[in-house]
Amino acid sequence: MLLILTFAGISAISTTTFETNISGNERVGATAFYASEGIFEIGLKQLDQPDHSEKIKPIPRREIGQDSYGWTGSPQDKESPKGLLSFGLFPKTGYDSSWAFTRYQINATGESFGAMKEVEAQVSYGPLPAGTQY
Length: 134
Fold this sequence. Notes:
Helices cover about 35% and strands about 30% of the residues. By secondary structure, it is α+β, with helices and mostly antiparallel strands. It has one helix and five strands, in the order αβββββ.
């Protein structure tokens, strides 16, 4: 009977240790995801600047919280982040030819304790004046 109770105790300890590791990995992954979301939001704020250009400047690796970092670009762009990518002007239904929109792609990567998560989204910015504006 003592042997069975010993095996049950060892199994319970092993399961608890395994579950603790899983929850720790989930926390680190979530922190990396939120760091990438923070950089994504900073990239969106750049679009609100009145002088934003076709290629918006990259966001270098910066600390987002304790032991969490983020930058624009993919995980391989850690040392040389990439800017937001512009796909140029395009018309949108419901607007006449004197208005256009710009589409951007924002890639943002977050890192926390070695875990990395990347967010990629395309956003439409506008309407912007286009054409001759008669």
